[in-house]
Every structure is written in structure tokens, then in C-alpha cells.
């Protein structure tokens, strides 16, 4: 069997459905082998978008998404997507081509040491130097990609190796069970929780796994403990829950941080320091129990006193069974903070202002999407508004990136989400800056016949940085640009464009687009003056004494 046929057989053996990417001449043997397989090639218009789609597929399914590129510039275009998957804990396999390694074909033309380039941003990277090594390398790549914490893996398939004759031997796939925590650490955790007066539960991205949601709901219901989450932990527990305090969209100075100041113990489930800190630890301050698949790396702002290491769902179920309800836990202050959070988060959804303010946008998107609808976000200041103001009802129904926090990922992520869940409505909200970084994928979405809604928040500037610039008392400089006519731009790709001219028009248009077939783009003028008013002035003027 030809080596390119063997690697495709190995991918089929792993259950691969799609390969996202752009082939080059060094991939032609591989491409021909894919043609004869059941795997669908999803041709994109940029390798970065292919990587974002593969990473999102991995995030939603738990199985590595696979993406393909050629050597040189094709491989370098994977770098941002690799970092996105690696920091975000998303299992992904990248396959790149290379010139022949046994005979020189064109000198050093286009040749980079891609394997070495990928080392700092992947869990595993290897050049395939012999076709007979393919089954073992593919099996190992998939094992490493899904092992906690999940991330990016890279394989390089040189052109001459792909054409070699090989012996067909495939490895049986197997599910590796995660280890259970040590009983002593569970007992110590129970002791710390029961000695605390004001314990608080934090839910992070690592808790966004199967079985963990149910276990955490049981824990909360039994203990009556208030909880909050990180941005990437949104939806693990239904945020309509009466004990939900909010999302740590900022690292400090928000209303829920008043509760954090009073907490003497935080049970931190599924968080690590790669995600933007939801709070800062201080020496001699509150205690923290770290519950995760891996121990916490010691960091200046995070150094938990206890690690409960093992399968998260099992750990939480065990803690739920071992904990005795304490009558002297003091949750009355959290109850008052909950009322304060709800009051401030739910206000200012003003439907009279135009251009639209962020609070109104968030409110209308939440109303328009059903409980299982999926929202993806690109990166910009609106991500903070959605993290704070948008209640998520189910796991993985709001996909945002709070690890690499790269622009350009929101739209490709939405495309992958729609492919994984074709029966569920998908809306992506992008800034005009982030959308234009991968806007060419409109053609891909139209070609794939996806039903998708793209909401572009149009302020003709890099709004997040303008907000930071103003907050530091710098003059407005270097962040404004012009935009295309987004309606005509969408239509040129075969999508359907809409332009909003008043608040009521946005509400009606969004609902109509969600209920319609095809790719819909909505151009929404946005007013970010609320950024400074609320996120700076209001929050810094608040008092935690209630």
C-alpha cells in the first residue's frame, strides 16, 4: 500500500470525518488518497481558518479535528491556529507537506524547519521519515492530542515518503480512562470546605467536559454553594441557576469580585492560568482548592493550597458524597451580591439608542437564540459584554477564546460548529476588524450550504484597543480605518447582506435570519461609549459594602 493511502486509512481508523485545509503540490499523493476515502475534504480559503475550524471541531466533539497544509507558507499560516488550539485546550492534528527528504529537488526553495517551528506551540511534532512508521505515529498523535490537557499535534509528510510502498498495519484505537484522585486529597478538600465560613465555587474551561455538568449541578444543589465561572467555563451549569453570581469577564473590580473579597475558600474546578485570571491570589489571603485533571502550575497570581488531581467529574461526585451540610456557612452576603449583579447586568438594554449599545445587542441575541443555539465570538471589547451579560444555558453554547484571544477565529469557529450541529442555529458576532481577517471564508460557507448568521459590529476601528488607549489617557491615534460596504461584500460571495438602521430593525432582522436558510451577514453600527462609562467609571466607583 502506498504511504499516502496508509495514512488516510489510519485517519479513517481514528474516526476522522473531515480534513480542513488547502493542499499544495507536496500533498498531491495524500490528496488523491483522500479522494478514494470516506473522509470529506473541506477546502478553505486560508490555512488559518482551516486550523480554527479543526480546533473548534475538537472543542465540540472531544475528538481531534484534522487540518492540512503544504510546506513553507502553508505551514506558517497554521501557527496562529496551532497556538489557538494549544492554549485553548482543543485537540487538533495538523498535517503538512514537505519536499522530498531523500533527494534534493529544488535546493532550499520554500523549505523551513517546520517541525522545529512547531515545537513551542504543540504537544507533539514529528516528521514521518518512513512510511511504515505511519500507523504508530498517527495513533500516538491522536492519543497525545486528547490527553489532558488537550492541544495541538503536528505531523509532516514529505513528498517522497508519501509515495513509498508500505506494509499495512493499523493500531487498534482505545479509550484511555482518566485516573481518579487520591482519597487523601479528597478528604483534605472536604476538611477545608467544612472548616470554611464562606466557600465559593469557580467553574473553568476544563470543566467543559462530558459528565462534569451533571456532577457540578449535584454538588451545588446539595451544598447550596454560590458559584461563578470563567469566560470559557460559561454554560457548564445553567446560568439561570439562583446561585449563579456571574462570569469573571474582568480580573478584578466587577460586582462578583465583591463576593470574592469576602470568600475565605474558593473551590476552583477546571481552571488553569492559561485563561485570563478570574481573580488574583495574595499571600496570606483566601485559600484555594484546585480541582483538575492536572496539578496547578505555580504562578504569581495563582498558587492553590491543595491540588485534587484526577477526573473532574469523579472528583466532584466524590466530594458531593463526602461533604456534610454545614449550618454555619455564611452565604447571606453572596445573596446580596447576587441581587446587585442581576440589577446591573440586566439594566441599560436601551432600545432607543442608535448606533446600538453593547447591552442591547447582547440582550437581543440572547432572546433570539433558543436554549441549544450556539453563539461564537471573535475577539474584541464586545467579548467582555457578552461574557458578563449573556447567560449561557448549556455547555458549549457560547464559544469564545479567553486563552490566545486571537482575532479572526469567530467566523471559522461558527462554520465548524454548524457542521458539528447542523440542526442547531449558529450565530457569530464579530468586530469589523476581526471579521476581515478571515472574511474570505464567506465563499467557503456559501459553498458548503451552511445556514449561518454573521453579526458584524461596525465601528470602523479596533475598538478594544481604543478603549484601552482612552483608559490610559492617551490621545486617539492609529486605530481607525475604513470598511467595505458589507452588504455588497456579502452579496459578492453569494451570501445575503442586511444593514441595520434602527434598534427595532436589528431585532427583526436577526430573528428572520436565524429562521432562514443560507449565509446571512448583518452590518450593525455600534456605539462603544458605554465601555468607559460602565467598565471603567461605574465599576471603579462601586462599593462592596452592602
Structural class: alpha/beta
Overall mean pLDDT stands at: 94
Count helical runs: 22
**Termini gap:** 73 Å
The CATH fourth-level homologous superfamily of the largest domain: Thiamin diphosphate (ThDP)-binding fold, Pyr/PP domains
Overall morphology? globular
CATH fold label of the largest domain: Rossmann fold
**Percent of residues in beta strands:** 15-25%
Number of strands: 18
Q: Report the CATH C-level class of the largest domain.
A: Alpha Beta
Give unreliable regions as ranges: none
Report the CATH architecture of the largest domain.
3-Layer(aba) Sandwich
Q: Please indicate the count of domains.
A: 3
Strand order across the largest sheet? 2-1-3-4-6-5
Helix content: 25-40%
Which value, in Å, is the CA radius of gyration? Answer: 24 Å
Keywords:
alpha/beta; Rossmann fold; 3 domains; six-stranded parallel β-sheet
How would you characterize the overall build of this protein?
39% of the residues lie in helices and 16% in strands. It folds into three domains: 160 residues, Rossmann fold; 158 residues, Rossmann fold (3-Layer(aba) Sandwich), CATH 3.40.50; 191 residues, Thiamin diphosphate (ThDP)-binding fold, Pyr/PP domains (Rossmann fold, 3-Layer(aba) Sandwich). It is globular and about 75 Å long. It has 22 helices and 18 strands. α1 packs parallel to α7 and α10 packs parallel to α12. The N and C termini lie far apart (73 Å). The mean pLDDT is 94. The relative contact order is 0.10. By secondary structure, it is an alpha/beta fold. A six-stranded parallel β-sheet has the order 2-1-3-4-6-5, sandwiched between helices. It has a six-stranded parallel β-sheet with strand order 9-8-7-10-11-12, with helices on both faces.
